[in-house]
Amino acid sequence: MATSDLPTVTDETFPKRTNKTYALVELMHGEGPMVGKGPDGTVFSFPVVLLIEIILVLGVTLAVFLFSLLKQAPLEAIANPLVTIDPAKAPWYFVGLQELLEHMHPTLAGVLIPTALITFLVLLPYIDRSRANVGIWFSTPRGKRIVLWTAVYSMIAMSAYILLDNAFSLREILRYIVPEWIAQGLVPAAIIALIVAIPAFILWRRKASTRELMIALFTIMLFSALVFTLSGFFLRGPGFKMYLPWQMPNGYNPLDGL
Amino acid sequence: MSVQTRSRWAPLTESRVWRSFFRHGMPDNPLDRSLVMTSNIFLHLHPVKVNRRSLKWSYSFGLGVISAILFGVLIFTGVLLMFYYVPSVERAYPALLDIQLSIPLGQFTRNMHRWSAHLMVLAVILHMVRVFYTGAYKFPREFNWLVGIGLLLLTLGASFTGYLLPWDQLSYWAITVGTSIAGYVPLVGATAKSLLLGGPEVGQDALIRFYTLHVAVLPLLMMLAVSIHIWRVRKDGGLAINDSGVTTEDKPADAAQPGEPSA
């Protein structure tokens, strides 16, 4: 309490000569129910949250409403099992899987990798059991840097894998030399595993926490899925062959298939 | 107004019919004002007070609420489409033409259904990404993370089964490609595929199965899962904001301490 500029009061309240045997020496950080919380930072749900939700309902509905006025849902000719369309693509959220199928054995691309990813997501909260930094984006500044670097890395590595495998396919070269399960299964699996393992190994050497390792793995998964989806959606034309989006033959426009 | 004063609404609010609807009288006295709060559904879903930080837009981007809203839009437009759609190989495509060409607002309703569906898949994925990067899957929210994974898969399933219903070339071949992936699963793949399609290829049996999954099975499962999901959000203490005070456990030395008071 700085009350020295009020001498009359100070002299009475805080006498200069006193027999007190205690003093304020230092302020300590402590662990208590209200430590670090400051004043109660809450607001009433009613009406604050209600208003936010009403605004969201109106905003989202209006956005879909306006877009629906501008863009029509596609409808092509009636289904005909005798006439294949070219390219035949899965819905956009599965087109990454379809792209993956171009590069490896179907059991690996269609079953083992998706199962591994779902298993990773399911086990995630039981592997990363730390309770620190909940509710903070990327946990720490270091976590943010890990996201940035692994995102850039996976986009470059996976794009390179897709393009290289498309240009000179190792699997095709190996096709008549080794059995199919090696050329189509083991080799691509090893390449993908290596791409994932490199940043994980670097982080492990730098004594990363489990959370940081999970951040790296999740980011690799997310941005690899993004690359494969974009490639399958925009770069694949007739025959599911690779073209630049603006050089698609036969007037094929990937956006027509949404 | 004192509590003892009999409200002029009393003849209405004390009637048995009113009391069967509402567990409180007119909110013109402190008791009924608090009863209005504690006995209403909004405050069943939400706590009375929420932390400011959990409302910050740049924290959650409202993605969970947006997914739920889109689910609502999809149910509304989907039910409207159901009045005209017939899940038969002969009649599905003509029904689509009818909806688009002769039914008032048919094309518009279909547009809203389709774009909301795409947007919902995107919103659900982004919601999961947000929850992951903010560490919101950690204790005590592990179970709700699992429910969320279930909801992501149900959303993909709902979108995928709806994809076949227009019965045009696009939907037919997309489902043919999509279900052929299921056929690659060792041992059970062929069985799973024929269970889904009701036969060796996409035909009438597949259409009726996809339709039933799309309009009944998956939406019901999703409603159940969404109820559990929202209920658990409240049970687990609302949105995961950093109010535990734990910020240092496995933090590297170079990390700053945002929000920590300095004295």
Describe the structure in your own words:
The complex is a heterodimer of chains A (258) and B (263). In chain A, helix 3 (95-101) crosses helix 4 (106-127) and helix 7 crosses helix 8. Chain A has helices spanning 7-13, 45-70, 95-101, 106-127, 141-167, 170-174, 180-205, 210-235, and one strand spanning 42-44. Chain A has a domain at 92-257. Helix content of chain A is 57%, strand content 1%. Chain B has 263 residues and is mainly alpha-helical. Chain B has helices at residues 10-13, 16-21, 30-38, 42-45, 52-55, 57-60, 63-82, 92-101, 106-133, 142-164, 169-182, 189-197, 204-235; one strand spanning 49-51. The chains are: A mainly alpha (258), B mainly alpha (263). The interface between A and B is large, with 84 and 100 residues.
Q: Biggest sheet of chain A, open or closed, and with what strands and sense?
A: none
Number of helix segments of chain B?
A: 13
Number of strands of chain B: 1
Q: Which topology of the domain at 54-235 in chain B does CATH recognise?
A: Cytochrome Bc1 Complex, Chain C
Structural class of chain A: mainly alpha
Terminus-to-terminus distance of chain B: 47 Å
Largest interface: A-B, 84 and 100 residues
Look at the helices and sheets of chain B and give the structural class.
Answer: mainly alpha
Low-confidence stretches of chain A: none
Low-confidence stretches of chain B: 248-263
Instruction: Assess the beta-strand content of chain A as a share of residues.
Output: under 5%
Query: In the CATH hierarchy, what is the class of the domain at 54-235 in chain B?
Result: Mainly Alpha
Which shape of chain B, going by the Cα principal axes? Answer: globular
| Helix content bin of chain B | 55-70%
Order of helices and strands of chain A: HEHHHHHHH
Question: Mind telling me the CATH superfamily name of the domain at 54-235 in chain B?
Answer: Cytochrome Bc1 Complex, Chain C
Quote the distance from N terminus to C terminus of chain A.
67 Å
